[in-house]
Amino acid sequence: MEKKKIITIFGTRPEAIKMAPLVKELEKREGIESKVCVTAQHREMLDQVLELFDIKPDFDLNIMKSKQTLTGITNRVLEGLEEIFMEEKPDMILVHGDTTTTFSGALAAFYQQIKVGHVEAGLRTFDKYFPFPEEMNRKLTGSLADLHFAPTKSSKANLLREGVKEEEIFITGNTVIDAMLHTVKDDYKFENELLNNIDFENKKVIMITAHRRENWGQGIDNICDALNKIVEENKDVELVYLVHLNPIVKDVVTKKLGNKERIHLLPPLDTNETHNLMNKCFMVMTDSGGLQEEAPHLGKPVLVLRDVTERPEAVEYGTVKLVGTDIEKIVSEANTLIRNKDEYSKMSKAANPYGDGFASKRIADIIENYFSISNIEIEEYLK
Fold first, then answer.
1. Catalytic residue numbers, as ranges
2. pLDDT in the model for residue 191
3. Is 126 helix (H, G, I), strand (E, B) or coil?
4. For 123-144, what is the mean pLDDT?
5. No. of H helices and E strands in the chain?
6. Average of pLDDT values for 288-294?
7. Within a 10 A sphere around the Cβ of 45, how many other Cβ atoms?
8. DSSP 8-class letter at 86
9. Where on the phi/psi map is residue 121: left (φ > 0), alpha (ψ -120 to 50), or beta?
10. Three-state SS across 105-120?
């Protein structure tokens, strides 16, 4: 039987982390010719993940430009993929989540009537501007996809409400859990010496990321003011803030939190460092989507610095709490976890809804079944 050609497409570090274990799984399948295309929507941070997982892309669009716009990214991805698709004629492309690369990749495939598989499908906030542009990237990609790999039952329910056929939706868990089985080590030594010198045993170390567009301006200001208060009011707390390189974020954070005792500002870390910092820290405060999935796997409570989340399962399970960007609410919720052992234990021991580390295997099984490469039983993935 002729192999089916599958091209996996991604462009940012979060996508790469979550697609890497799937790429490695597809490489094992004899009936699949697996190829990888990166758009390099983000360049340096993407390359770190490729090196970590030993992935050598077959195609690299290298589209990243200084001060790039969403329109520019979309145009360059569409034009680059058109040429690749015409030459390669894949049987299916796989895209992930909610980036501009994701939507543009799905649209480029649709224009050439190529099948689309959407990994991490069905996440919704039901507000098209929060997060922006991610919410609409997800919805538009969902409208173009032929197979929807939903991480949870809630994600599947969202797709059903939008009219997606039930037989096209599969519950797989989230591939980020697969990735973490590769990266997290109990005896890990950091490459960053500052992290090796932090007393994780006796200090309550809070890991922070905050950079989303909807928090630019007043949101980041408020977050920084809240973090200052938390440190001032809790002498056993240290902060490690992984500061996004965008000057809109970096300049504000550096001005408000730089050179403060027990506050460490670091640039974004590579995937190994980030996952192992998360494993050693006390709790996480973030506006990131991925950390809401990763931290619960490690038993770390998460305060989400947003008013809405497309990942409500963790809120329902009790591992994540929405606190927005109100200064007093952020400080109050953080202090509760810092000072109340019972509340901390309740969040840290809640179940993780995002999977068991076998999402990539399930997705590969479903693709093989779809193309009649094998008769692997996939009925359970529909429930």
1. 98, 120, 134, 211, 213, 244
2. 93
3. coil
4. 94
5. 16, 13
6. 88
7. 19
8. H
9. beta
10. HHHHHHHCCCEEEEEC
Instruction: Give the DSSP H/E element, type plus range, for residue 33.
Output: strand 32-38
Neighbours of 377 (CB within 10 A): 9
Looking at the chain, how many residues does it have? 383
d(CA 316, CA 154): 11
Q: Is 341 helix (H, G, I), strand (E, B) or coil?
A: helix
Tokens 């890497």, located at residue: 20
Q: What is the pLDDT of residues 156-203, one digit of tens each?
A: 999 999 999 999 999 999 999 999 988 999 899 999 999 999 999 999
Instruction: Report the alpha-carbon angle 249-277-179, nearest 5.
Output: 95
108 touches 82 (CB < 8 A) = yes
d(CA 294, CA 357): 12
Q: Phi and psi (nearest 5°) for 238?
A: -125, 145
Decide if 353 contacts 173 (C-beta within 8 A). Answer: no
Contact 317, 350 (CB under 8 A): yes
Report the 10 Å Cβ neighbour count for 70: 13
Please give the structure tokens belonging to residue 272.
């190994």
The greatest distance separating any two alpha carbons of the chain, rounded to the nearest whole angstrom, comes to 67
Give the C-alpha separation, 370 to 20, whole Å: 21
**Distance of alpha carbon 234 from its chain centroid, rounded?**
30
Round to whole Å and give the CA distance between 191 and 265.
Answer: 16
- Tell me the residue type at 170: F
Q: Report the Cα 26 to chain-centroid distance in Å.
A: 20
Conformational region of residue 102, where left means phi above 0, alpha means psi within -120 to 50, and beta covers everything else:
alpha
Averaged pLDDT, 126-135: 91
The residue behind tokens 């034009």 is: 79
CA angle 259, 263, 269 (to 5 degrees): 105
On the 0-12 / 13-18 / 19+ scale of CB atoms within 10 A, 157 is middle
pLDDT in tens, 315-361: 998 999 999 999 999 999 999 999 999 999 999 998 888 888 999 99
Q: Which two tokens stand for residue 78?
A: 């569409």
